[in-house]
Every structure is written in structure tokens, then in C-alpha cells.
Amino acid sequence: MDPFADTLQRLREAFSSGRTRPAEFRAAQLKGLSRFLQENKQLLQEALAQDLHKSAFESEVSEISISQNEINSALRNLRAWMKDEKVPKNLATQLDSAFIRKEPFGLVLIIAPWNYPLNLSLEPLVGALAAGNCVLLKPSEISKSTEKVLAEVLPRYLDQSCFAVVLGGPQETGQLLEHKFDYIFFTGSPRVGKIVMAAAAKHLTPVTLELGGKNPCYVDDNCDPQTVANRVAFFRYFNSGQTCVAPDYILCSPEMQARLLPALQSAITRFYGEDPQSSPDLGRIISEKNFQRLRGLLSCGRVAIGGQSDESDRYIAPTVLVDVQETEPVMREEIFGPILPIMNVGSLDEAIDFINRREKPLALYTFSNSNQVVKRVLAQTSSGGFCGNDGFMHMTVASLPFGGVGASGMGSYHGKFSFDTFSHHRACLLRRPGLEKVYALRYPPHTPRNLSVLLMAMETRSCSCALL
Amino acid sequence: MDPFADTLQRLREAFSSGRTRPAEFRAAQLKGLSRFLQENKQLLQEALAQDLHKATQLDSAFIRKEPFGLVLIIAPWNYPLNLSLEPLVGALAAGNCVLLKPSEISKSTEKVLAEVLPRYLDQSCFAVVLGGPQETGQLLEHKFDYIFFTGSPRVGKIVMAAAAKHLTPVTLELGGKNPCYVDDNCDPQTVANRVAFFRYFNSGQTCVAPDYILCSPEMQARLLPALQSAITRFYGEDPQSSPDLGRIISEKNFQRLRGLLSCGRVAIGGQSDESDRYIAPTVLVDVQETEPVMREEIFGPILPIMNVGSLDEAIDFINRREKPLALYTFSNSNQVVKRVLAQTSSGGFCGNDGFMHMTVASLPFGGVGASGMGSYHGKFSFDTFSHHRACLLRRPGLEKVYALRYPPHTPRNLSVLLMAMETRSCSCALL
Predict the structure, then answer these.
(1) Belongs to which family (chain A) (predicted)?
(2) B160 near B74, Cβ under 8 Å?
(3) pLDDT tens-place string over residues B203-230
(4) Which residue out of B57, B388, B389, B405 would a mutagenesis test of the A interface target, given it has the greatest number of A Cβ atoms within 10 Å?
């Protein structure tokens, strides 16, 4: 008994009917999404608070507004993005029409994670809808309260012949992945990313995988420790560290570490007070399982700041670890919690080697007053994205693609990159049924003279070879 | 004494003259504003800093194109030079190291690629490996940073599954049955020339060749003599002796194609010669959808014609099947061409000709659905083999401004931040 067959059939039929193609339909869907956010703000904030103890500030900034901005951008640019993109022609091809047509793939599957359960469901959804696809959304079952809102409230704002939400855990998702989709967009861990891609391979389904890793944060000796501490702490402990692009660990000299520690303590106290557990601005760990995992990491190295935990609250204090070995668990897995280990290096070269010995991360951070140092780290490493002298601000720039490389993922989205991700770029050439005498130059029997003429025509830059 | 009177008078007179009405005038004004901003950036920043201590240092935001690292290119046998070199050009231009696995089936070209090509490249950054399916399977167990594969959908799945184990991104240039719809409203000889040229080129062994024709019975009756005429003009009375007609790559493929000759009814050609791996330029009619010639990519000099009663029926026929790599429509009516384009999907599309779209360097070349994923040629090759890294370089100063975003959060801080975020292409100096 396949629980998904009917839903998939319905969505495919709707797509075949051509329903999602007109700009008006797509715009109506995007406006529906917009109304969903506006009319259910409180409901969403409550759900996010229940799932992750998100403050109103975090919900607004990192979930609701960011999604709304993406919707607004898509609405503003929809028609421009949808237009056939004419491509350069030369003199020989003036009579031909050459362009790239953006077409929806068809049925898109979006699998969303629990850490930014609204944003990471809606942002890809905006792209998929703007591109004219029918969409099946599988929100995370771990962020239960948000899952409920997405399953029960969101569909009312969209055309339900072209959009559906399915629920389930790993087993149901595995079953779902046996079906053929025309595109799969997955946000989650590298381990599950491999499973998704392997399932996609069976149907030759293209994928975008937004994965993760350990995002290094190199702190140069030449910097202001308090500024660095403020910025690193803000981005590390945001959402209680449960952010795929959060700085995962610091790399710095022992001297820098000595200056950073009091600065980090100062930042943490200023941000969350003397008793961070009672701060409304600090999130909680999503689940018992993750809490236990993180509590285990607290025994790596030595606790320099924080280290407290409270199981009844799934609370982990903003923590900094020092004297950590590369072989310890805290340096072997993506932390995804409010724990910041500091690793010591003797030089910039050593830091770069350390980074390059490991999997390519989703984000890489470098703090230095020296532009040279920042540019050198940029030039000698690779990562999904990079930010000099700040945390994950690069992902709020709509004109920058957001995605990973290597183990941190493949493909990208945000803004126009979302529209392009969910579109097939079809090469189109419309030629003339006449001029056969000219076209005849290319037919056999071939002579050396014909060949010379043809080769000359082909050498023309951006050649569209009318003679061929 | 009114200090403004003259100025106001001047402006009113200009407006009455109609000067500001044309779009060109307005655009010129807007462009002037734009140049003002561009040419006076520093001046403005200084002025704003003096007045309001505004966040004057704009961030540097850019996309950096980086090579992936070690790229594997697996090339096929039908255009063994082109389909090895074209991806290689992209991979090298993008700064990668490359391992090339040419096809073992096109043995002579494989030899040249293996023995001669490396001498022309830096061999610390480029290597050729040889082998058949088994060796390729072994090769695929290794981790690559990108895999570019040209070949059949069946093997494409194997390559993607192997890539999944290492989270390696892939471009798969596959194949399918490329439909060729021929409208009643066309000149049969022109269509026959073009279809025949592209079908029999390389003895049909082309991933973007028109695979089968869809047309009305009436059109078929007009096409057949025109196709015969084209074939005779191109290859002579005895095509087997024409220097312009290719041969089938292997015994195995020859046997497969010879088997297809018994589908439907041979209307033109149908001869074959095993000793020469020669198959005559052939047209089949009265073909059933269930016969082998309509169930697999032909990849040979055999062109079946399927009859349809209408354009709608042709479009339905096409949409019932896997998305092809290429789709062709011949019609004197632009409407018809555009309708087929709008109601189908395919890697690429050409109206009123064969696979010319792949010679346009500014068009991406690639498939969709079962015909593939990703694309290349020209800049698309460079971009395919590059990681597009989002980079933002911010300032270590201005901490007082940045501090607005830190906890403890207040409703006022939130409003300011949201306002900053709403700025189009927001680079949120405040965040």
C-alpha cells in the first residue's frame, strides 16, 4: 500500500495540464505564501518557540522576514526571470531566433530540516513555485510544531492540485524516495544526502543538496579581540548553535586564544546575562537525542567558558572548549550546538593546511585587520561560501548563491539562483524553412571547397553557422 | 527680489516644450544619475560619514569561480575526439586536474588520445586511463571532485550512483529518442534534405540526431520520394561506395541495427553488409510503437516514420515518452513550431533544421529527465567545472553599528534591522 501514490498522481496530472505555467498562476501562489506568513505570524512564532525556544527576534529575523523577502523578490522579478533569454548571434544568423527557455522540471520534492523549519521549507518552495513546478514538501518531523503548521495551514494558501505536504520519518522518506521526481531539493546531513542522491540516481533525477560540515573560523593575531568575540559569539550561539553555517571551531595562536577568552566571556555575558538559561534570547536543543550528543561533547578538551547543561530544559550553556585534540569527537563531527572549541595553530600556513586537510565546509570565516590575510585564506582554501570579518552574513545577500561544495553539498539557491535551480534551461533555435540553396552547401557529396567555406563560417565567434 | 523666479520660469518653460516626455530623455536622465553615483562614490561616502557617521565602507560581495579539483571525464565512441576534448577544454579552463577515460570501443582514437595527447599537456595535471566497463567500475569507486559523463542513460545511472557515495557532483550527457515532427504545411524536399543530412551524418550515431519522424499519412506520402531523392543526391546510387557515409562502430551494434531492419516495412534502403559493418540509409514505415525500433534509441542510419492524425496527437505522443535530448519541428508556420516548443520539453530544440542548436556557443548543451542533467559548451563548460563560491568581505571596524544586532534584543532594534533587511539586494551594513 503506497501512501504517496495518489498525491503524486494528482500533482503530475496538474502539471501536465499546464496549470502552473502562466505567470499569473505562479504570482498567485507566491502571494498565497506571503499571506500565509502575514496571517499566521503569531502561530508560527509560537511553533518555533515550542520547537527550538526561538525568541521573537530570531523568528522574525531568521525565519519570517527572510522568507518574506525571498517571496517579495520572486514576485518583483518573476516575469523578468521567466523571459526567454536571447543569446548572441552573429551576422550569419540574423534571421534565426536563438534563446534559452526556462521551463519547470515538473514534480519537485523538497525535504526540509528542523533547525530553521520555516525558512528552509519556504525559501526553496518560493523558487520551485516561481519556476512553475508542482511541489511536494516533506518538512522535518523533528520540529513537530512547525511541521503541524506547514501541514495543516500552509496548503490552504496554495492551489492544492499543485502543492502537497507529506509527513513522516526516515522510513516514510525512504519510501517516498523510491518514487520518481523531476527534481529533489534536500537540506540536511551529508550522510542522508548520499542516500537521497543514490535514490535520485535510480531515476536520473537532478538534485540540489544543502549539507553541512565543520565551518572553520580563523582568527588572526592582528585583530581586535572584543570585536571578533562579539561577532563569533553572536553567530555561534544564534539558534543555540543549530545553524549549518555557524562558525564551528576557532583556529588561532595561543596568544590570540588568551586574548579571546575573556572577550568571549564578556560577549556571552552581555548577550545572555549572568544566567544564560534565563535569557529569552537563547534557544534550546531540538531533541533529547541531540541534547545527549552535545552533552557528551562537553567532556572534550577543557571547558573554558560555560559547560553547564540542564536535561529537563534541553539547555546547553554557551560554551567554549580549549586544549582540544583533533581526534576528539568535538573535532570529528559537525557540532550543531552552542559549543565552540578553540584549536591552536602556530601560523597562517598551519591554519590553511589544517583547513585543507579536512572536508570542504559550507562556510569559512577569517577575522583579521589585514586584507592580505583575509584574501590569502580565501585564495588558498575552498568552501561553499566565505565571509571575512563577520559571521554568516553572506547568506543574506540575495545576489550571492547559497550552497556547498564537496561534502558540504552541490547546487545553490536564493534569489534568482533559486529560480534557475528549479528550471530546465532549454536551448532553442528557430530557423527558416527557406534559403535551402544556402543550406545545401553543407550536404554531401562533400568537396574541399565546401569544407573551407563551412569552416570559415564556423570560426566566427559565437558562431551560429547559417551555412550549416 | 524673488531669488527663485528665474529658475522656476526656466523649468516651466522646459516642461511646456515637451522635453521631458520621451522615454529616451527620461532614460538619459536616469543614466546621468547612475553615473553620478558611480563617479562620486568616495566623495559621497565621505560626505555621509561627516554628516551622519553612516556605514560608509561598503562590503565587497562577489562570486569567485574556483576549480573543483580532480575531474573525471568519461567519453563515448561516436564523436570520440570532440566529446573528449570539449569537456576537457572546460575542465582545464576552470583550473582542474583531469583524468580522461576515452571509449575503448573507438580503439584507434583511444590510442591517439592515450599516446599522443598527454605529450601536449602538463602531465602532472592530466592523465588518460584506459579500460572497459569493469575497469571503469573500479575507477568509479574512487572519489572525484566532479564527474562528466557522456553515454547511455543506463550507464548514467551507474555513474550517478557511484558519485552519490562520495557526494560528487555530475554532468550526465545521455540520450533518448529525439522526435522530429513534420507538419503538413512544409516543403517536403527541404525537410527531407535537412532530416536526411542530420539522420545519416556519422551513420546515425549521433545523440542529437532526429530518431523518428511523426507526420500525417499524407505528409509521409510526399516525404518518401523526397527522402529517396535526398539520399541519392547525398550518397549516390550505391551509398556503400560513397566516401561520405560512415560505418557502424562495432559488430555488436551492427547486429542490433540489422535486427531493427525487420521492424515495420522498409520503404527506402534496408541493405546491410556484415563484412563492412555497413547499413544503408534506411526509412521504415508502418511501424508499431511496441516494436524494438520504437523502444530503444536507434543510433544508426534507420529512420522510422510514425503516423499521427493531428498536431495534438503528435504532442501527446511525444509527452507520453521520456524527455529527449533534442526535439525537432518542421513547419512553414511559426505558430506550429512555437506550439510544439511550448507544449513539450527536451534538452534542446530546433525548428526547421537538425542539430544546429549545438553549434551555437552561447546556447547550453545538455539534457533533461532521462536525457541528462547539467550542460556545457562555451561559458557553460567553464561554469560547469567551477564552484561558484559566495564571498563577502566585511570590515573589522564599525562595531558600534554592528552591535545593533546583538542580544539582548529589543523591539526597537528589531525594527531597525528589519528595515535594513528589506533593502533590495540588501548587504545589510547594520547586520
Answers:
(1) Belongs to the aldehyde dehydrogenase family.
(2) no
(3) 999 999 999 999 999 999 999 999 999 9
(4) B389
More confident residue, B263 or A439: B263
CA-closest candidate to residue A465, choices B358, B326, B131, B273: B358
C-alpha cell of residue A139: 518538512
Whole-prediction pTM: 0.92
Q: What are phi and psi of B393, to 5 degrees?
A: -110, 115
Give yes or no for a contact between B174 and B148, defined as CB atoms under 8 angstroms apart. Answer: no
Task: Kindly report, residue by residue over A397-430, the tens digit of the pLDDT.
Answer: 889 999 999 999 999 999 999 999 999 999 999 9
Burial of A399 (0-12, 13-18, 19+ CB in 10 A): middle
- Angstrom distances, CA of residue A186 to CA of A128, A206, A259: 13, 11, 40
Can you spell out the DSSP letters for B35-78?
Answer: HHHHHTHHHHHHHHHHHH----S--EEEEEEEE-SEEEEE--SS
SS3 B284: strand
CA distance B373 to B353: 24
**CA dist., res. B190 & res. B377, Å (int):** 29
CB–CB of B407/A272 below 8 Å?
A: yes
- Residue ranges of alpha helices (H) inside B360-410 are 378-384, 399-402
| Cross-chain residue pair B390–A398, CB shorter than 8 Å | no
8-state DSSP, B190: H
Which grid cell sits at B423? 533593502
Return mean pLDDT, chain B.
Answer: 91
Write down the pLDDT at residue B418. 75
pLDDT in tens, B7-34: 777 777 777 777 777 778 777 777 777 7
pLDDT of residue B276 exceeding 70, the answer is yes
Shortest CA distance from A427: residue in chain B: B348
Q: Which three cell numbers stand for residue A188?
A: 540536511
Q: What is the pLDDT of residue B427?
A: 41
Distance CA B24, CA B53 (A): 37
Residue of B nearest to A437 (CA): B190
Within 13 Å of residue B312, how many CA atoms lie on the same side as its CB? 0
Residues of A with CB below 8 A from B329's CB? none
Q: How confident is the model at residue B428 (pLDDT cuts 50, 70, 90)?
A: very low
Listed as ranges, residues in chain A with pLDDT below 70 are 90-94, 456-468
B207 annotated active-site: yes
Yes or no, beta carbons of A444 and B244 under 8 Å apart: yes
pLDDT tens, residue by residue, B332-354 = 999 999 999 999 999 999 999 99
Residue-level pLDDT at A441: 85
- Distance of residue A418 Cα from the nearest chain B Cα, in angstroms: 14
Grid cell at residue B100: 580522461
- Residues of A recognised as catalytic: 210, 244
Instruction: Give the single-character DSSP code of B240.
Output: G
Q: Which of B86, B110, B173, B297 is catalytic?
A: B173
Nearest CA of chain B to the CA of A93: how many Å? Answer: 10
Higher pLDDT, B267 or B59: B267
User: How distant, in Å, are the alpha carbons of A137, A209, B241 from that of A188?
Assistant: 14, 8, 61
Nearest partner of A186 among A246, A118, A124, A103, judged by Cα: A124
CA-atom Rg of chain B in angstroms: 30
**DSSP letter assigned to residue B180:** E
- Asked if B330 contacts B352 with a C-beta cutoff of 8 angstroms, the reply is yes
Distance to chain B for A313, nearest Cα, Å: 20
Give the Cα separation of A64 and A37 in Å (integer).
7
Chain A: residue nearest B231 by CA? A444
| Residue contact B197–A443, C-beta within 8 A | yes
Q: Which residue has the higher pLDDT, B121 or B423?
A: B121
What are φ and ψ of residue B177, in 5° steps?
Answer: -105, 110
Tell me which chain A residues have a C-beta less than 8 angstroms from the C-beta of B422: 65, 69
